[in-house]
Amino acid sequence: MVPLDHGQLSVAKHVVAGAKRLTVLTGAGISAESGIPTFRGPDGYWRGHSPEELASMDGFLKNPQLVWEWYLERRRTIRSCQPNPGHDALAFLDSRKEFCGVVTQNVDGLHKLAGSQNLIEIHGNIWLTQCISCPYKVDESQSPITFRLNCPECDSLLRPGVVWFGEELPSGGWQQANEWVKDSELLIVVGTSAVVYPAANLIPIARDAGSYIIEVNISNTPASSTADICLYGKAAEILPLLVDMKAP
Ligand code: BV8
Questions:
Q1: Distance, CA of 138 to CA of 129 (rounded, Å)
Q2: Which of 3, 50, 145, 176 is the most exposed place for a label (fewest CB within 10 A)?
Q3: 162 in ligand 1 pocket by Cβ < 6 Å?
């Protein structure tokens, strides 16, 4: 891993402290220290299947049982995990009036658990279960980790309440995410490979709006060339250094 440049870190701290409007975009990397495998890391495949294959309506309809087994295994993992100091640092930003909020691609719910209120889960939440046909939807974050295949209301298939590949993002959240980014003079991009669209488009949207971009990642990504500062290291270690959690 590229060593953390402490000179860049102190510049970045200054930019964060002085930002008049700021937004944060997060991906699976921020949850790595909590013990949740990332998508495109060494443990991204599951029983030989790629996330793109399983996290799709085609994949689900081909084998709903297999896809549910994948989600249940992820729910079990996530239930045993806690937010890490990276999530906590971002939750603290809610106390700053200049803060728009966190736009997360993650479905693990750890930002919510850390206390982030100004939060958009643009890819949904793994704890939601919904019917593919009727409005039936239930939050299973406090339920035992089992699943039922058929909707109690209409007997259609039940699916996880997440955005699958090939599906449109919920319009309200996507609109709000765009407004926050366009309204901000600083975008902090944390722990994302920046290859999933349209979420990754928020980075050039920020650039085109004249924003300053700080990337926090353990390695280079396609976003690195757009960033003004790249801080290399673990999000759980860097974010508490970047966010002065004493300053209101
Ligand atoms: C849509 C929910 C259209 C499900 C997810 C070709 C070109 C461009 C686009 C496409 C294309 N072919 C298809 C598309 C579109 C497709 C897409 O982008 N595909 C990609 C793979 C090429 N996108 C879609 O299908 C989207 N919908 O386009 O709809 C449409 C329009 C109108 C009408 C109908 C349809 C929907 C995309 C949403 C998919 N759902 N999740 C679930 O979770 O089960 S995406 C999934 O990937 C997760 O949400 C995840 O968060 C997200 C992005 O991945 P990352 O978060 O970046 O995670 P990753 O593992 O990749 O990277 C981790 C990073 O962390 C790495 O950089 C690593 O270095 C770093 N890291 C690791 N450890 C640490 C760390 N950093 C800091 N600290 C650490 N400790």
A1: 5
A2: 3
A3: yes
